Amino acid sequence: VEMLASARKQKLPIRAYGLTQHYREIFEITRLADFLAINPDEDSAVAGAERSTT
Fold first, then answer.
1. Are the beta carbons of 38 and 19 closer than 8 angstroms?
2. Helix/strand/coil (H, E, C) string of 5-25?
3. Which domain holds residue 23?
4. Which of 21, 37, 38, 52 has its CA 20 to 30 A from that of 30?
């Protein structure tokens, strides 16, 4: 949560990838998923990050 707050203050996007279903559910329940992108794998996270910076 501290990392998320720091990134938001600096207007930097955060992405998570490779989460198990258990952690995906935790991110949804705690609403962390509202503040970061969740990708299935590293390649899609990198591709999404590249699209968001261009």
1. yes
2. HHHHHCCCCCEEECCCHHHHH
3. 2-53
4. 52
Give tens-digit pLDDT for 1-54: 898 889 989 998 899 999 999 999 999 999 999 999 999 999 999 998 888 765
**pTM given for the model:** 0.73
Residue at token pair 């509202």: 34
Query: What CA–CA distance (Å, rounded) separates 27 from 36?
Result: 9
Q: How large is the greatest C-alpha to C-alpha distance in the chain, in angstroms?
A: 33
Q: What are the tokens at 54?
A: 């261009």
Domain total for the chain? 1
Contact (CB, 8 A) for 18 and 40 = yes
